[in-house]
Design brief:
Length: 494
Amino acid sequence: MTITNVAAPLITADAASLRHADAVIQSINLPSQGIAVQDPATAETIAHIPDAGVEAALEAVGKADAAGADWAKSSLRQRADVLHAWYDNLVAHTEDLAHLISREMGKPLAEARGEVKYGTDFVRWYAEEAVRPAGNFRDTPDGGASLLTRRSPVGLAVLITPWNFPLAMATRKIAPALAAGCPVVIKPATLTPLTTYFAVQLAIEAGVPEELIQVITTSNSGAFSEAVLLDPRVRKVSFTGSTPVGRRLLELASRNVLRSSMELGGNAPLIVFNDADLQRAVDGTFAAKLRNGGQSCIGANRIYVQDGIADDFTAALAERFAQVPVGNGLGQGTGLGALIDDRAVAQMHTYTNNAVTLGATLLTGGHGYDSAGNFFAPTVLDHVTEDSDVAKSEIFGPIAAIQRFTTETEAITRANATEFGLAGYVFTENLDRALNVADSLETGIVGINQGVPSNAGAPFGGIKQSGLGREGSSEGLEEYENIRFYNVARRATA
Ligand code: NAD
């Protein structure tokens, strides 16, 4: 493989959209110095954010803790009303949020709007869920007592989020924490912190008590977590990010036995059977792979296609990929935006070269662009071999890595041959096969004949080394609640 970069034209940003994004940045209360935030499509510095040390982080813990005392006592209706008001404010600022997400993270504006919809849905969901607390009342089986189970807020929650969905990863944690009655300290990734600052500003405008949500950004994440997770006022950590960082946070959480939720890395298998609807399978794979530029923890990573449909499927998928317009997320008609940083682009080159050297066929893409931004072409590799890096690692970029298989048993065995277990996908028109294969996949999430399974009403999360706990749905609220029971002795009255 020798192709590295091409000079092919990239779509440039629309001037009005850029002005819109920059006006939103101007409206956020940010310092003039600190950690530089760059636009991945242009490498331009677009803002500076505070670089908090340990002292500032602990001060934030103190403020959240103090504000949390009243919040824990607030009525469920009060919490719901505040969350509804935040939801309305976020929705009213949909275009602002979408432009901001696109500018700081690189995704196309249309996808950023999709993220705003998805991210705000969590706020609405938990506004609705807040007034329906779980709990029950039952008698002990042997009589003589009644059991009353109740929920209470788990306490101060530290939330650590990644860069790939700057709004949704934050709201998916903040909203259930507030609904349960917990104060929060949130640390967004320094690559995409602006959306969190803006969304929290909108929360305060909507009536969330000012100190209840503390945002901390730092260039020293290690020192932050070591100080904050060992602080006795903290009772919960919720993290979304890579498995190695998750392991480290679990070690720290073990010291004070913190309630821990971990949404970690994925390595999703996507299986296309001979009896799949070809168009549905291509559409679903396209979405599961290329959404967010492939930078999604549930992105289709290992694509297994059965021999009988493989030639038609790969040809159709490669044709779709080849037509995707690449460029600035704020450009007109961009289908694939910039990757998050230049390391991600270098990694895509390395993956492609490694796969082709080991026997894969490059059907489309496989190159970067002469640009200051971080662009890599939509890429399809067929006949990928099991020893290739793309078959073993989380790709996190726009490379579709296709392997072929013959039998259902073989597909399941290969799909499960990983320590990860976040998402999997099955394409078949046979209902029995769909459900049997879904049951056999060792993943927390299965997309059946579709490529975007996430939903605010679904309990998102992984098994094996992809994580602990769930986000979204009623299960996501439980992550921020203690379950307690009262055993009430009963005496018969006359
Ligand atoms: P990352 O683990 O490098 O960083 C995630 C966050 O953790 C960032 O805010 C980072 O600053 C912070 N961090 C890093 N080291 C830390 C430490 N020692 N203490 C405290 N915080 C620390 O991951 P990333 O590159 O930002 O995101 C990509 C990874 O996240 C992928 O593996 C992806 O699969 C995973 N992810 C998982 C989900 C999910 O729901 N399971 C969702 C999105 C992303």
